Amino acid sequence: MKKISLLSFFMLATIGTLSAQEVAYEEYDLDNGMHVILHQDNGAPVVSTSVMYHVGAKDEDPQKTGFAHFFEHLLFEGTKNIERGEWFKIVSANGGSNNANTTQDRTFYYETFPSNNLKLGLWLESERLLHPVINQIGVDTQKEVVQEERRLRYDNSPYGRWREQMFINLFKKHPYRWQTIGSLEHLASATLEDFQKFNKIYYVPNNAVLVVAGDIDIPETKKMIQDYFGPIPRGAEIQRNTFVEDPLNGPIKASYNDSNIQIPLFMMGYRTPAQTEKDAYVLDMISTYLSDGKSSKLYKKLVDEKKMALQVFAFNGSQEDYGSYIVGGLPVGDNTLEDIKKEIEEEIVKVQSELISEKDYQKLQNKFENNFVNSNSSIQGIANSLARYYMLYDDTDLINSEIDIYRSITREDIKEVASKYLTPSNRVELEYLPEQKEAN
Fold this sequence. Notes:
- The chain is α+β, with helices and mostly antiparallel strands.
- It folds into two domains: about 25-230, Cytochrome Bc1 Complex, Chain A, domain 1 (2-Layer Sandwich), CATH 3.30.830; about 250-435, Cytochrome Bc1 Complex, Chain A, domain 1.
- The chain is about 45% helix and about 20% strand.
- The chain contains 16 helices and eleven strands.
- The protein has helices spanning about 1-15, 65-75, 85-95, 120-130, 135-155, 160-170, 185-190, 190-200, 220-230, 280-290, 295-305, 335-355, 360-375, 380-395, 400-410, 410-420; strands at about 25-30, 35-40, 45-55, 95-100, 105-115, 210-215, 250-260, 265-270, 310-315, 325-330, 425-435.
- A six-stranded mixed beta sheet has the order 1-2-6-3-5-4, with helices on both faces. A five-stranded mixed beta sheet has the order 7-11-8-10-9, with helices on both faces.
- The longest helix is centred in the N-terminal third of the chain and has 20 residues, at about 135-155.
- It is globular, with a radius of gyration of 24 Å.
C-alpha cells in the first residue's frame, strides 16, 4: 500500500509539469460550406460523431426566446427515415450513447459508438440536418418537456433564477440578457411556421462544424462524410446583428425574492470581455484564485476561519461577445449580506493592489496545466474542444496551444485585469432573498 501511495503522490505532484500530448487533426470544407474536422486515435475502438451549429439563445428574436434550446429537444423527434421516438432506441441498440446541449452561442449534438458503427453516427447526424420532421405533434410534445424543465431547474429550484436576475441587469441591449431556457409564453405562442423558419435559417451545413474523432480511417471517413453530408444543400448566408453595450455606470442595485429559499444570497456581477481576449483568461485565473477549492482565499477566510458564510463562489463565464464574472456567498448565523459584500470586496481589493504570492501563482499554473491535460483525455472531450475552438474562437489549434496563453499570464497581469474590470462602476449587486410570507 505504501508503494502505491508514493507512486500516486509522485504522479499527482508531477502532473502540472507534464505537457498534454498534441492532438493531431485534419480540417477541410465541403462544397456546401460545412466545416469538417477529423481526429484519428486508434487506441480504443470508439468513435465520436458530433455536429456543432452556430446558433444559440443570442440568435433569437427577443419576442421568440427559447428557440435554440427548444431545437435541442425537437431535433430528436425523428426524421423522414427515423420514426418518431426511435432515435434513442437506435443509438442504444447499437451500443452507443448520445446527447445535446445549448448555450447562448451554439448548439452541440453528439453520438459515441463502437468504431464499427461510425457510418450509423454519420447517417443519424445527416438525417437531423437533411430530413428533420418538424410537425405539430413534435412541437406540442417538446413544449411540455421544456415547460417541465423550466419548472424543475428554474422556477421550483432553490436559487434557480439567480442567473436570470443577474443577466437582465448586466445586459440591456445584448441578447445575453435572457437565458437559453427562454420564455414559456414565447414558446406557447409560437406557431409551427415559426419553428420551421428557425430551422431553415440556422440548421444548414454552412452554419455547422462536423467533428469525427476516435478509431477511424481518414480516407474511408472522408468518403462516408461526402456521401452523407455532401449532397445537403447550402443554406442562405446568415445575417447576424452586433450589439454594443453602454457602460454599466454602477454599482447597480437589484433584488429578487425566491419562495424556494430560506437563506439569502449576495452576488456581485461584472461585465467582462469576449472569451477570445487574453483578459478573459486572466479572469479565469482570478476566479480560481478566489474560490476554487477549500484552500482558496474566499473559502478559507469566510467559511473556515471567520465562519461567516455557508458557501462562497467566484467564476468567470466567458462567451463569444461578452463575458461575466460573478462572485458571491451565502451568509450564516447573524452575518448579513452587507457583511459578506464587505469581506469579498476586501479580497478583490487585495488582488487589485498587491501581487499574489509566487506560491499561489505557481499553484494556479499547475491547476490550469492539469485542467488542460484533462480536457483532452477523452475522445468526447477532444471532439467538443475541436468544434468549440473552430466555431467560437476561429482557431482550431487552441486545442494544443491554449495552455500557452495561461502560461503567459503574469502576476502583474492578474493585478492589472482585476483593477480594470472588478470595479464598482462595472458591477451589479444582487440581493437574492427569501420570499416574505404575509402574516395572517
